[in-house]
Amino acid sequence: MSPVSARPPLLLLLLLLVCLALPLYAVEKFPSCLQGPTGNPGREGNPGTNGIPGTPGIPGRDGLKGEKGECINEIFEEPWRPNYKQCAWSALNYGIDLGKIADCTFTKLRSDSSLRVLFSGSLRLKCKNACCQRWYFTFNGAECTGPLPVESIIYLDQGSPELNSTINIHRTSSVEGLCEGVKAGLVDVAVWVGTCSDYPRGDASTGWNSVSRIIIEELPK
User: Fold this and answer.
1) What sign does the CA torsion over 21, 22, 27, 28 have?
2) Which residue has the higher pLDDT, 63 or 23?
3) Model confidence at 162: pLDDT above 70
4) At 79, is the secondary structure helix, strand, or coil?
5) Dihedral sign, Cα of residue 20, residue 25, residue 27, residue 30
6) DSSP per residue over 150-210, as a string?
7) What is the mean pLDDT of the chain?
8) Rounded CA gap, 149 and 129, in Å?
9) What phi and psi values does residue 23 have, to the nearest 5 degrees?
10) Which among 82, 117, 140, 173 is least buried, having the fewest CB atoms inside 10 angstroms?
């Protein structure tokens, strides 16, 4: 083949290279070329699968030390049960002026409780001159000291000897009160008659022609 006949293919190849390179050159040289319209948004893709669980985090720091709490001891006590007793006499008819009139034995369940005592019966005092008599309770032979004795008195003033000698009134009366500090166990509760301080005694009578009674009840504080 002659050199002249080989040139046309070479020229065609050069023209082809220029045609391919020219658009790239134009884009670099002239970037302000107009863009075509924005295409329509694509459809949402399917949700992806869950990722691999992450590794555990670093343990947090210790919190501040709290205040010291209070120690509370719970005490469960048994429910309170009524505890009472009555001793009664149809006709005591005690004409003594000094001494024990009647007694009643009681079982006290707790040492921290109180005793309520009541004597109910007819009382009388008779004298020609001023006189005073005292009816009172004892607990195991001693008067109450928590806080004070349980007592009741009758006082007659001085009047005419003729009038006072005829006064003979028997009235139903009561001696009542609370006593604290009596220990648990068997308690001898008694009612006595005696004199008042600084006054002479008279002619006393207890429980004439009627029912007399002592009532004892244990009460919580």
Assistant:
1) positive
2) 63
3) no
4) coil
5) negative
6) -EEEEEE----HHHHTT----EEEEEEEEEE-PPSEEEEEEEEEEEPTTS---EEEESTTS
7) 84
8) 27
9) -65, -40
10) 82
Residue 110 in tokens: 């707790």
Reference 178, options 217, 135, 122, 214; nearest CA is 217
DSSP-derived 3-state class of residue 71: coil
The values of phi and psi at residue 206, to 5°, are: -135, 130
- The percent of the chain in helix, strand and coil, each rounded to the nearest 5, is 15, 35, 50
Name the amino acid, one letter, at 45: G
Per-residue pLDDT at 172: 95
Give yes or no for a contact between 199 and 98, defined as CB atoms under 8 angstroms apart.
no
Residue 127 binned pLDDT confidence (cut-offs 50, 70, 90)? confident
Contact in structure between 111 and 179 (CB atoms under 8 Å)? no
Residue with tokens 């209070």: 70
Amino acid at 150: V
Contact 149, 181 (CB under 8 A): no
The answer, yes or no, to whether residue 2 has pLDDT greater than 50, is no
Residue showing tokens 């006593």: 179
Least confident of 39-43, 67-71, 92-96: 67-71
Strand-pairing partners, residue 159, are none
Asked if residue 119 lies in contact with residue 175, where contact means CB atoms within 8 angstroms, the answer is yes
pTM above 0.85, yes or no: no
